[in-house]
Fold each of these.
Amino acid sequence: MEIKWYIFLSVALFCIGIIGALTRRNAIIVFMCIELMLNSVNLLLVAFSKMHMSGIAGRYPGLATDAQIFVFFIMVVAAAEVSVGLAIIVMMYRNTHSVDINFLNRLKN
Amino acid sequence: MLGNYFTFPELLLWCPLITGIIAFFIKESKNVKAWALFSSLVTLLISCISLYYADNAKYFLYNYVAYVWLPFIGSSFAVGLDGMGHLLTFLTAFSFPLIFAATYKNDYKKANAFYGLMLLSQAGLMGVFVAIDALVFYFFWELALIPVYFLCSKWGGEKRIQATFKFFIYTFVSSLLMLTGILYIYLKTAPIATSEHSFSLQSFYTSVIDSGDQSWLFWLFFIAFAVKMPVFPFHTWQPDTYEQSPAPATMLLSGIMVKMGVFAVIRWVLPVLPLGVIKFDNIVIGLSVTGMIYASCIAMVQNDLKRLVAYSSIAHIGLMCAAIFSQNTTGLQGVMIQMLNHGVNIIGLWIVVDIIEKHTGIRKLSELGGLASHTPLLAIFFVIIALANIALPLTNAFVGEFAMFTGLYQYNPWYAAFAGLSIILAAVYTLNMIQKVFYGSDNIYTKVISQVSAKQKIVLTIIVVFIFVAGVYPKPVFNLTAETVTAVLSRLKN
Amino acid sequence: MNSIQLIYLVPLLPLIGFLINGLARNNLSKSAVSIIGSGVILGSFIISILIFSEVSHKDFSAHTISYFDFINVGKIKVDFAFQIDQLSSLFLLIITGVGFLIHVYSSSYMHEEDTKDFARYFSYLNLFVFSMLLLVLGANYVIMFIGWEGVGLCSYLLIGYWFRNTDYNNAAKKAFIMNRIGDLGFLLAIFWMINTFGTVSFHDLFNTNNGIISSISATNSPTLVGITLLLFVGAMGKSAQIPLYTWLPDAMAGPTPVSALIHAATMVTAGIYMIARSNLMYTLAPTTMTVVAIIGLSTAILGATIALKQNDIKKVLAYSTVSQLGYMFLGLGVGAYTGAVFHVMTHAFFKALLFLGAGSVIHAMGGEQDIRKMGGLGKHMRITYLTFFVGCIAIAGIPPFSGFFSKDEILAGAFAQNPVLYVIGLAGALLTAFYMFRLLATTFIGKFRGSEEQLQHVHESSSAITIPLIALAFLSVSGGLVGIPEYMIPGSHRLQEFLNPIFAQSNGILPKHEISHHTEYLLTGVSTILILITSIWAWRKYKNYQTETSYKSGFGKVLANKWYVDELYDALIVNPLKFFSRFLNNIIERSGIDGIVNSVGRGINYSSRQIRLLQSGQVGTYILMMVAGMVILFIIQLFAK
């Protein structure tokens, strides 16, 4: 499969993520959109890695998989982030009985 | 045995540092005061002994040492004492007992932190005066200043936050300029491709910097030190800070810390950037002399005792700066002795000002008056110290100012003549101050003044005795610093 | 033992007296204080006599005794050294002698003060004598300068002795500051000498063998003119010459013995001493000599005119001092150095006498100083009256009293230089005679014009006051006999002979103006007759002084207001300086420099407050901005290159 399809897919995912994050007010949905963007980037990273490194994989076996290991790191960090983020959202719900992100704007003053 | 195990610069450094840290853990306010006084006396003792071994031809090992510190960037913990170092460490060691004893009666909240910070600052000052490595120098420069920020902002007067902020901005910006300069010279310290960069004073001296670079480097360094001295027009932090700081911090600042600037110019600017100095000496002397007249004029119309003393200090420092840049033995030797004398005299003045303020609660000249009828002793002390401050002959400041003026005259008679006007103006504001504070008739505020405490009497007596001894027989001080002056000037002449 | 070796005791004794009286002022009784205070001066006086007798030997040559290095650094080489020669030994005698009498006088005059203040007074007085001796003994200009500023300080302390009075303090301050203006000139001259000659020692500069100045043959070199003019500025301040004379009349705020000692007999003559000391330099700078002569003469006339219309007994004497000092400078300016020093000596006698007499009067009048409220005091105070009378005759210059000889010598010198100087000088002498006899007549003759209470109180003063008066009166009568001019009795000008080693070099250079003995007799005769006529006229005019004359307009008012010089100085210097300082403080300092610093701070503060608005708290906005930022970065990345 050509690389461009991967790129299209991840751009599409990224745009969905951005639009979702910009337009929705539900904290959980915004959060999901952010994850979507993150994963679109992950996808791109893996795709590029596959494309660039296939030629040199024989000569530098270690190098070929670097990007994919990198992606795993991102996923681990993202998982940690999700747990923190969800915890924040739960706390927010407990305090305000709402998950509307515009409801908590008291930082302004 | 002395040189093998410990050296004087280290002792002078560690003594206040360690005792200062210990001071933080002493809870009782009374004990911490006694501890601080004790510590400062020990330091003074060390300093006095070190003066006996000041001859570097014989006792080099007692006065210089270097430890491995940051070898990978070419910095070592190198400290040493030459004549000027001895002089200024002595001033520092001599001043602190005076400050502590004179303000013994004052109570400060969280005394342990207060005295701890004072001692830390002393350690920083000692470090500045003994450092012969640029990085060590910078480190201690900041170490000396940081406690002062806290001293001013926590124990100061009403507008302390504002004043400290101004002080902080001024000194911090100037420190950064200096750091930039140090780093740039550091990169120039390897004249041969094979040698390594180094922060040591010696390699700074041998660094190859062309005239163009020296010009802007000169200003980086000079502004940094000019703020500290302070030289017109970088002086506006000073009156505010002196006014707002607690008395011991004010004494510390004006007595010793302004000497940091003077010292640093002589040690780090003159020999390192000789071309820059020669290029800009006229401008700097012009600024200093203008500043002298300017500050004297302003001092004449001040109504606040503390601000008046602050402006008079600016005027005196201006003369020192001008004399440094006249680049001759006479002027520089004058600066040397004047650093010591001005330090002691101004501390004496602040002590009296503090006593007056503590007893009457006012500092306004227009509200004071007639104190001489109630405390003749204080009046006598004040008059002597104030007259020493305006360099009356046979007091210590005369020797210094005479030498500095002669040096300045040697450089350019017109500068000396113009600067000489400040002699007259100094008499005007000083006599005005004496008259407004001590003479005339008393009022309800000034009637309450009680007698001077025994400790203050002793301190002021020591200062007065010092004033006359150094004024009649200044030779030992000149001998002490002669070598440094020759060395510095020989760098300039090449 | 050689008494020259004791020279250090001469200034040391007064210093010890100062320390004892100053430190133990709370524990000593008044009599102890006055015994210590006067005793140390007596000790110095005795040693001075011994030294003087040593110095007056024929084969004596000047000694420089060096004690230790004072400032020895770079170009400055200053020893703490004393110079003993004819000039300094003569001044030692005057200072300690007159000083001793005035100390004795003070012990009675100041007796009503508190013990503490009494001791303070005596310690200041001792300190003054110490400084004055240092000034005279110093073997170089720096040591001289130490004494020079020291006497200024003591003058300040003593004028402001009654420190609760603000006017007195102002007078003291004025004296010190005026002196400092002069001191600046002196200092600059010292710097100049250090830089050109490399020394300030009298011996190195003036000795006959290899002195630096002595080997200069060119006259009027710019360096010498500059140095001498600057030194003269110093002398102007200390010796109250135009334009720095206004402090001296104000200095009368101090106790009267102080006026006698400091502001008449000793300190104010320091300028003359200094110029006499550097006579060689002045001789080589004729331009400066002319300036000195002109300023001296103008001051003499100015002082005399103001003295005509003063009503305060001490103010009259003060302006008279200013005027007499002017004569001394005239003498110096025309090269009559011996005459000037001679006049210093005789003036010390009769002016101290007059001041002490005035003090006795003021004491008797209970502090009253206005002569309009006196009159007829001669009947009640015979000794004071007689001695004052002697003083008047001496100052007026009536032979054979001391003032006659010294003034005559100066005027003869002036005539030799330029007859115009002589005529103006003589006019000044007539004015002197007039105001002195006006003072004498108004005070001691006629009817008493004070209050009844004062009249009850008027009495002759105690012996501690009258004995110094008598001693000084004796000196005023006979003091002139050491300098009888050549044309009267040849070879009897002993002072000239004595001082010859000091002025020999100058006299060799100065152009010789020989006046025939015939002319000299004529001049003396004319001036004596004129002075006598003026004195008698003044005496007759004011013998029955009764009405209060106030000067509503005209010249009299200008004179009574001292030519408005103080007002002029206020308008020209003091007020503009104050204004300028306020301008610097309020505009430049507060708004200018501080303004810049503060506005930088304020600018940062303001912009932060504006930027803060971006933090709206809307999470959506943040994300939008983030995206916008990313897009902008993309665009830069893609299109910027």
Note: The longest helix of chain C spans residues 565-612.
Amino acid sequence: MPVDGGGLSLTVNQTAPMPLRGSLTCQDGQLLALVGPSGAGKTSVLRVLAGLLQPASGRVVVGGQVWLDCAAGINLSPQQRRVGLVFQHYALMPHLTALDNVALALLHLPPPQRHHEARQWLQRVQLTGDLLLRRPAQLSGGQQQRVAVARALARAPRLLLLDEPFSAVDQLSRKGLYSLLADLRKDLSIPIVLVTHDLSEARMLADTLVVMDAGEVLQQGTPERLYRSPRNARVADLVGIQNRFHGQWLGPADQAGMGWLEWLPPPGAGAPGQRGVRLCVPDKGRLSVGQSVSWVIQGDGIHLSQPDASAQSPAAWPARMETVRHLGDLSLATVSLDDVPPVTLQLTLAGPQRQRWEEGQRVMLRLDPAWVHVMPTRSA
Amino acid sequence: MDTQALWLSFELATATLAVLLPLGLWAGRWLARARFTGKALLEAAVVLPLVLPPTVLGYYLLVALGGQSAIGAWVANVLGVQLTFSFAGLLVASVVFNIPFMVQPIQRAFESIPRDLAEAAQVSGLSAWQIFWRVELPLAWPGVLSACVLTFVHTLGEFGVVLMMGGNIPGETRTLAIAIYDKVQGFDLAGAHQMAGVLLVLSLVAVAASFFASARLVVKR
């Protein structure tokens, strides 16, 4: 049943046999990465999309065609969906050669054409020569993965699904496959969904991130948006934001669109009755006065200066450089704030200026309010 | 050498295989995939002929399929076939007695196929029949071959059930195993020795051939 619009949209809602709830969308030609801890439901979402798992309630529309609509009694079989799926361990047929594995997805064609096309797809993933006539056990992990990608693409899918495809290959093969995926994306104008637990991989490859936990879609957004404005503390944890802090919302400030946040040590970590420092930060009007909050700040919003240079600034606090580790072109540093012990910030220093910071040095810390994001406290 | 008994044993083994192979493929594959309450009980029932004394099984089959029983009377009236002391009865008994030899190796073979292969085939557009024919059967083939050889050889040497169900009618129900027993009873040890030797060599060759073929057929994963 065709409906308007391209891309992928999914809504799913079930509580048993396992919880699975949420929605996501992905435009044609875009890569969406599903991230979250083990058991978050990432692979289950992929299985719903492929038609290998029918949820209690849900709807899947791809390229304007309804693949699943539980309410309307529509559920296309995996065979009818035209989906390309690269399994985590590739699921190549061990008794077939690389060429026959790809030809298996082309059974609708006459046999000679089947092999001709399979050969072309394998060439496209840079697999040629006698490798085509080898069985999977005679190929390396990276080569097996290329066969799996070729097989997934051979049916001209309308949706490409990749289930942790990079987890079982070495670093070198992984880099080669990143570039292969980047090349394929230029030519494929279909939505691509990638399941991964590697956040740096997800950030590097994806246009959109979807964070899942305990079967629930917590947030969807561009990597930049997710890292800058996680919906809640759990999302911040799951996407690995290091500078996440505790605080209390004090209410609106005099300046429109701004509010007061008190930066506090985490519950149970500071001295009893300890007060923190007050920050004037952007306010979306969603928090109530006195509410316990989590807040994050990106490295771009953290500025360090010499103690004398910033002494005049009201929004700068005395701090101490705890650790500085020089790693190649970058240095990783932790800074502790005098007024909010035992809180430490982590930041990456780059450029020639990084060399002037040393462990134990006194510094002034200034936070750019524009990079501060405050959210309700919610944990696992 | 009682060649008539030898050929009858071959006929019975071939017919048992012909009936049991399709049944075993279906049941073995189904048991490998299905999850339901009472599966353990059903699997125990499949294995039962392996642990029951053949005379016990033969006795129950005699009671269940004899002319006095409902099944036996129905088969005799409708199909005109008597199931006791006949080749047809022997075949039924042999099929029942060989169920574990056929179903169990096939079930294990299908169980050893990773589930994601069938799913990969599904998303590659293969129908259920194509998945069975092009993916599952080639991978389960060593197990299927073992099941066939075990069933065939086991039928050749079957004694207790055959005797209970078929008696000892030359050309009809006297198999090689019964003929050997007859020879020993008649103190013809040379004749018994000859036939026992044939059975021993046949069984050894068949099992060794199946092991050799299985080792070659097993696909490295």
Note: The mean pLDDT of chain B is 89.
